[in-house]
Amino acid sequence: MNQHRVKEGVSLLKQNGIRMTPQRMAIMDYLANAESHPTADDIFNSLTHKLPFMTNATVYNALKCFKKYGIVNELIFGRASSRYEWATSFHYHVVCTSCGKIRDFDYPKLVDVERFAERKTGYTITQHFFEAYGTCPDCNKT
User: Fold this and answer.
1) Does residue 64 lie in a domain region?
2) I need a surface site. Which of 23, 49, 114, 117 has the fewest CB within 10 A?
3) Which of this chain's residues are annotated to bind Zn(2+) (predicted)?
């Protein structure tokens, strides 16, 4: 499944004239296999041993490119660093206020909220984000 994601991502970038560098490939592979929602710094720190000449700017530029083409989602939670995830089916997030851990959870899309917002504001709603905040089971143990 993850290799399938990477192949689709590579194909999409190539169709749009984006050259696949070893750095972009490594970042894409990392994100496709990530079980967490890493920050750009997490990605950089995890890959510098493989690609010692890679810079933080390279990671940020690749993430910006991947986001532009819908390969990854950027998650912004308050003032914390943005986190990234592979763009998959629609889902929501729950964030631990103690350790910052993020988990995905499925729930029917809040279409009624989008329609209500459209009626009240006149905006055409194209997307929404929802996060629930609390304390994760690991932090509750301490």
Assistant:
1) yes
2) 49
3) 96, 99, 136, 139
List, for residues 39-55, the tens digit of each pLDDT value.
999 999 999 999 989 99
Q: What is the CATH number of the domain that holds 19?
A: 1.10.10.10
Whether 54 maps to a domain, the answer reads yes
- Domain match, 50 and 102 both: no
Structural domain boundaries, residue 99: 92-141
28 and 6 Cβ atoms separated by less than 8 Å: yes
Binding residue ranges for Fe cation = 128
Q: Annotated binding site, which residues?
A: 96, 99, 128, 136, 139
Q: How far apart are the first and last CA of the chain?
A: 36
| Phi, psi angles (nearest 5°) of residue 109 | -55, 140
| Residue range 28-40: mean pLDDT, rounded | 90
